[in-house]
Amino acid sequence: MLFSFKDRKRGLQMIQNGPWNVRENLVNLRLWMEGESVFEVDHDFMEFWIQVHGIPLDHMNKETGILIGGMLGVLAEAEDLKVNGVLRRSFSRIRVSINITKALLTGFWLEREEMPPLWVFFKYERLPNSYCFNCGILGHEKKTCKNLTVMACWDLTKRKYSPGLRVSQVRPVSAMGGESSKQQGWREEEEEQARVPHSLRRESDAK
């Protein structure tokens, strides 16, 4: 399906605010490049805003977001977490183009000197309903999945994927304004954090 926008800026906004779904069907908006056939447009990749939770406070910065974004896929943007030197979020937020033909990554173990490994986990903003709790791949649901069930490596009796991987989109730090305290800036993030199933904080993508 081909979408055309008279205003290029409006078209870019549609892509940047995605992903989108229509009647539970995933819509992957991709830019057409001059000289390219519509059949050559690559729909294997899609951009998501991804929240990164559990990072130690001394590593809560844009540079860490850039490193993690490169691990996930092709980094499009890493949010600056500070406004006037004040940390405004309890998590990092990055926009990354990921390969949607592969299972979604849920997090990683962060090795630390003289301390136990720390589980850092991901949440995907505006993740469509058409992602499979069975295998973690976008485009189909559990009831139609023909792949093997992916289990959490820390407990082979529990599934790796759940609805908790999906969250609503949050405001960018730049739009938060001048709250009088960090707690005001973190209000919506703390509400999201409270809804995270405990199991998501423990599973790992490590092979």
UniProtKB/TrEMBL annotation:
Residues 132-147 form the CCHC-type domain. The keyword Zinc-finger applies. GO terms for molecular function: nucleic acid binding; zinc ion binding. The keyword Zinc applies. Coiled coil: none annotated. Residues 172-207 are annotated as: Disordered. Keywords: Metal-binding, Zinc, Zinc-finger. PROSITE patterns: ZF_CCHC (PS50158). It holds the Pfam family zf-CCHC_4. PANTHER family: DUF4283 DOMAIN-CONTAINING PROTEIN, GLYCINE-RICH CELL WALL STRUCTURAL PROTEIN 1.8-LIKE. This is CCHC-type domain-containing protein. It comes from Arachis hypogaea. The lineage of its organism: Eukaryota, Viridiplantae, Streptophyta, Embryophyta, Tracheophyta.
